[in-house]
Design brief:
By secondary structure, the chain is mainly alpha-helical. Helix content is 82%, strand content 0%. It has one domain. It is built from five helices and no strands. Helix 1 runs antiparallel to helix 2 and helix 2 packs antiparallel against helix 3. The longest helix is centred in the last third of the chain and has 48 residues. It binds fe (ii) ion (2 copies). One fe (ii) ion (FE2) binds next to helix 2, helix 3 and helix 4. The site of one fe (ii) ion has 6 residues, from helix 1, helix 2 and helix 4. It comes from Kitasatospora cineracea. It holds the Pfam family Hemerythrin.
Length: 157
């Protein structure tokens, strides 16, 4: 599969979970825990395959977008720490919904920048064959993703 199509599919999956979270009732603690756990899993795998494969390849193909890659990594950093906090937070805690709300704002902003400003340039520079090759590598790399968001490279620095 084309690397950019694969990443956009992941974004859609996460957005669906966000909408479900927003629809969940104030006291639907068990449901919201379940959604948050799925979000943690999806975004850990997604940031992992981006950082391991897509970001380095895109940076090499379009050196002009290096600043964008570096900012994206910092955005991942914040998101991954929030995911780690959410993993250990009781959904009945008054900070849980607020933390999810800020996480969703951060991720939506990040996704919009990736899709609107950056991916089109990468697509133009890489071409179809290279994107397909990267897509296959990312599909395979899903299996190597850690469970702990803090094990994704950008969480560390
Ligand atoms: Fe990203
Ligand atoms: Fe992404």
């Amino acid at each position: 599969m084309d690397a950019i199509v694969l990443l956009k599919d992941d974004h859609k999956t996460v957005e669906k979970l966000f909408k479900e979270f927003e629809k969940a009732g104030e006291r639907a603690h068990k449901h919201k825990r379940d959604i948050a756990d799925q979000v943690i899993r999806e975004l850990t795998v997604h940031t992992w395959i981006e950082e391991k494969i897509f970001y380095p390849a895109a940076r090499e193909a379009v050196p002009d977008t290096t600043d964008h890659v570096l900012e994206s990594v910092e955005e991942h950093h914040v998101v991954l720490w929030m995911l780690a906090e959410l993993a250990g937070l009781d959904p009945a805690d008054e900070r849980f919904d607020a933390k999810m709300t800020v996480l969703m704002e951060n991720v939506r902003h990040h996704v919009e920048e990736e899709e609107q400003e950056w991916f089109p340039e990468v697509r133009k520079a890489m071409g179809r064959n290279r994107l397909t090759e990267l897509g296959e590598q990312m599909e395979a790399a899903r299996a190597t993703a850690p469970n702990d968001p803090l094990q994704v490279p950008s969480a560390g620095a």
